[in-house]
Description:
mainly beta; 8-stranded mixed beta sheet; 2 helices; globular; disordered N terminus
Amino acid sequence: MKTRYYILLAALVLGSCQSDPRIESESPLLRTKVSALQYAQSEKIDLESLDIISPSKFVKKGRLFAILTPNSAYRFAIYNSETGDVTRLVPAGRNEGEGMYYISLTLKGDTVSAFDFETGRLVEIDLNAYTTTGYQPTFTDLKTGGKTPFGAIRLDERILSTGVYTQGRYCISQPTGTDSYSVDYPLCADTTMSDTLKSIFFASNTLAVNSDLNRLACANMQTGCLDICEIEGNELERIHELHMTKAQAKINKQRPRGRGYVHPVSYNRNNVFGFCDLTVSDDYIFALYSGRTLKEHNLNVDKGKVILVFNWNGSHVRTYRLTNACSSISYDATENAIYALSQKNNKSEIIRLDLE
């Protein structure tokens, strides 16, 4: 399909990587303001015992845990820790009411959302209504107007997205159908790249906004770039840009001729992967950082043992080191704790991390 721009996102791009012995030194943030963050052994949730298999991301709201299960017949599972009930939503598929490929989850208020980069639809699940008889999540098509989005998050009646955009890195879409683009792409390994290639270079992101909806945090998974922007009306303005390491990637600037397939961006096996997940409070951004390479960890690069904490101006506040490799985190303001999806020894558990 033309709209795919011959790309594969997230894990699909990994198979084309070439070996390169050069590795950038690790970011000094990993050695600054460091403290250990232990977890409460008594409060862990064994997801396999709930028949929740191969979870990748989750968010927590009170007693409810909304979990992304990308390899299951239903893409989402909601676990009620009070009743023990598990509700499964969004069957796998490309038809109406179905979903295919999700890489992140977002919680805003009582609504869980995720973007399907196969169908181009944003799915939203109301945590107050999901158990109601006949309930169906809401799906919003974001490919209108010829757009090719890669990720999205709802602000209010507006939706903010990233994608193959040449007018700006971020797009805010209004219910009227009007799209507003803003912000240049972050600094890249090759400044001669077109905006189309830059959008692919920074394709796989996790997005989060603060409760006032006037700040955005965008963390890239492959490159370790954290972008913080101020939202003013339907425009964004970058206030901070952080690069943990320099990306190790090959850029193919020409479309391949014939039937042979060539990735436009091929990440090196020594590329240090970036952020696995984001969760935010009114004051802070908590970013789960991988810092792993394909060479050393193969497809487990999407897990990390470091949480970097920033304020909404981008200043580094704290670095937490974890004992378990985790793939997702969710902040609970009521408990002042971070819940994490631990993947230690391929056993999926949700654990609680009490903040200092």
